[in-house]
Amino acid sequence: MRKKKSVRTVTALMLSISVAAAMMADIARAAAETNADKGFRWRNGAEVYSKVCSYCHEGQVGPRLFGRELPPEYTRAVVRNGNRAMPPFRTSEIDDESLAKLAEYIQRN
Ligand code: HEC
């Protein structure tokens, strides 16, 4: 009995985490897309990080990115292609130049 209940609890927990991640991905995308429509350009890597990535990477959803000296080419690949629960971002959301700045910003911090 106990075992069954905890399996159910874990399943419910995993489900709510993935729903939360999907919702946050939508919020982040909507913010980025609205900006792109207005011919918006990100100011720098810090701005993209705080407005898009920090939703998940400063919360409980994604792993911490700072202090790990992540290679910029790795960050760029993950952002463009996504990876499991990490959503992909298109060039209309984060242009190449901003992504390059963002990846360097993450490596430095
Ligand atoms: C909707 C939540 C969400 C958003 C928004 C998000 N990420 Fe992620 N990210 C994740 C999750 C979850 C993972 C872990 C994926 C896995 O391994 O299953 C991840 C993984 C990563 C990784 C790999 C980390 C490692 O330890 O290998 C990088 C790099 C990364 N994200 C960068 C970014 C950047 C840069 C942004 C902003 C443009 C961003 N993410 C926005 C959820 C998100």
Automatic annotation (TrEMBL):
It comes from the Bacteria. Keywords: Heme, Iron, Metal-binding, Signal. InterPro entries: Cyt_c-like_dom, Cyt_c-like_dom_sf. The keyword Coiled coil does not apply. GO terms for molecular function: electron transfer activity; heme binding; metal ion binding. Residues 1-30 form the signal peptide. Residues 42-106 form the Cytochrome c domain. SUPFAM superfamilies: Cytochrome c. The keyword Protease does not apply. This is Cbb3-type cytochrome c oxidase subunit III. It comes from Nitrosospira multiformis.
